[in-house]
Predict the 3D structure of the following.
Amino acid sequence: MNKNSALIVDDEPDILELLNITLTRMNFNCVLAASLREAEQALAAHQFDICLTDMRMPDGSGIDLVKLIQSNHPDLPVAVITAHGNVDIAIESMKAGAFDFLSKPIDIERLRALVKTATKSGAPEAALDNELLVGTTDVMRKLKQQIHKLARSQAPILITGESGCGKELIARSIHAQGPRCDGPFIAINCGAIPRELMESEFFGHKKGSFTGANADKIGLFQAAEGGTLFLDEVADLPLDMQVKLLRAIQEKAIRPVGTQAEQKTNIRILSATHKNLQNEIVAGNFRQDLYYRINVIHLHAPALRERMDDLEALTSAILNKLAATYDSEKITLTPDAIKHLKRYPFPGNVRELENTLERAFTLCEGNTIRGDDLQLAPMQVETSATQSEELNGQALDKKLEEIEMSYITKALEETRWNRTEAAKKLGISFRSLRYRLKKLGLDTD
Ligand SMILES: Nc1ncnc2c1ncn2[C@@H]1O[C@H](COP(=O)(O)OP(=O)(O)OP(=O)(O)O)[C@@H](O)[C@H]1O
């Protein structure tokens, strides 16, 4: 088996020795350098699989080395070793391109985990274009490149963008392309957890630690061990929970409710929000220090109306998925339907496009969707981009659902729950009614 090779840069002989012994035991060939100059020479002479560097060297800083490696050897993962508690340096180095950091005193277990993650290859090349994210417009191409580049890094990433524009999908792609791809991807909507259960949901609890805690329970952090924890709607975390989350990220350790002992964690944190976190900080709803920690790298997901050239590709991907789900033949759109879609601003982004097409599919005759089947009200078609920014996709969906629910229940009551008759009354097919009943939770089968 070919040995991996490591470049270790430190002017402190003790640490150099510790790193050397640990990595040699992990079957690495180690090259040692005591200064930036020596590191540069080693980089010019050898190929490495990982570089570990201290921050302070006689002739420069670890960040200088990170920058140098970024520009000359962009595929070489480099991790920095920082003084205990020096968060600023750790973050600065990750922003500069370090894939992770270790703080002193060095914890051997963490060091081994870091080295393993760094040298583990991500998903195979074939998966890299990731079919997950449909889109070839410039903005999507750039986003995909960024995702590919950031997948190996362990830096926390904040993904911003409007509702339904693909933030979770981006997080999944980062996970799928990175070295943690065999580990779990745990997604959690921070706004959906009852406040009183939050700490236990995040960190787990011990049996008997509070009323209702009938058994030991693991939390999301433990469930995501070795993988990625995706905190969706992170702006909705209450302030007291923000403090606890900050601590967990900083210490890379958690304490389940009702226990004293800390548990180390090895997870990557990705977060997302459709809110402007800067504004939330000013309003006193979000902690600046937590923002700083989760936003080491920032990715922005574009709204659908900013990449309308992707609309047709997205539409056809969604229709293929629908055909597979409903075991139907290929579904097509008339040119008129395509025109309708192109004129609509999609305040609810790709999610709204999916909902629109699914609804149209259940309404359409045969397998061809016409303009009218899309039910895009003229008022909505004309909505300006500025107005649509104020609309919230989820609110719109909820409203439409309420209207749908009230019409359907009325028709069902009038026909004494005869669904064939109710469908006729509503002017929709039986198939469409059945689909809607299921979706609204009114299905009695
Ligand atoms: N580029 C894309 N290609 C294919 N499907 C996409 C794309 N972007 C979003 N989607 C689909 O749109 C839906 C919404 O995406 P996702 O849940 O990732 O959005 P989000 O921004 O996280 O939404 P929210 O802010 O409401 O949590 C999903 O079903 C997702 O698969």
Q: What stands out?
A: The pocket of adenosine-5'-triphosphate is lined by residues 133-135, 161, 163-169, 232, 272, 274, 314, 317, 350-351, 354 (CB under 6 Å). The chain has three domains: 4-119, 130-300, 307-440. The chain is about 45% helix and 15% strand. Residues 280 and 286 are 5 Å apart (CA to CA).
